[in-house]
Design brief:
single chain, alpha+beta, ten-stranded antiparallel β-barrel, 10 strands, 51% strand
Length: 195
């Protein structure tokens, strides 16, 4: 084998190993069945209901924090259809509103729509984990790009939800979000209403 062919074969093996790792041992490789039987059970109608407080950071493609945010969320349900209204306040001063509509299907599938989601997202809840996959259109100020999103939420024993999302363009990760969501205690709601 010539040195050029050897180098090419070696490069192909490395690329194949990277692709295999991405498929089998990465954030993207998680499956709802990985969380089956692991409690507490994440019930969207219960855990995404009422007022929620959220804080998080967004990492850019270099792994550095590019944005921080806090958000107020309000979930409400009628049967198997729910709305999650979100108001994000970013460290840049930007305020963003989003209203998700979530529909729970008899087979356990979650259908998710929002004004900036292209088409509809789909997902599933199993045990303590929930996954949603969708395409989101960024605001014109952020370039208007359409990104593929994988969004995982993990329910903790105290009711806190850990959220990790990856945003990809042409299969390449361009951003990652890590956030917490917690129910707002009744006392905190009363104080906020009094202000």
């Amino acid at each position: 084998m010539t040195p050029i062919l050897s180098a090419l074969a070696g490069a192909l093996v490395v690329l194949a190993l990277i692709a295999l790792r991405s498929r089998l041992a990465s954030f993207q490789a998680q499956d709802p069945a990985d969380y089956r039987g692991k409690g507490p059970d994440f019930d969207l109608r219960r855990h995404l209901s009422g007022p929620l407080a959220c804080e998080g950071v967004i990492f850019g493609p270099t792994g550095r924090v590019t944005s921080r945010f806090v958000a107020d969320m309000q979930g409400s349900w009628t049967g198997t259809t729910g709305t999650l209204a979100e108001v994000f306040r970013y460290d840049s001063g930007t305020i963003q509103h989003r209203a998700w509509t979530l529909a729970l299907k008899p087979d356990g599938t979650i259908i998710a729509t929002a004004p900036d989601v292209v088409g509809q997202g789909t997902g599933r809840a199993e045990g303590s984990g929930v996954v949603l996959r969708y395409r989101i259109r960024l605001t014109p100020e952020a370039g208007g790009h359409v990104l593929d999103v994988t969004d995982w939420m993990y329910l903790l024993e105290n009711g806190t939800i850990m959220n990790r999302s990856q945003f990809r363009k042409f299969g390449i990760k361009v951003a990652e979000l890590v956030a917490t969501m917690r129910p707002v205690p009744a006392q905190a709601r009363q104080l906020a209403a009094a202000e």
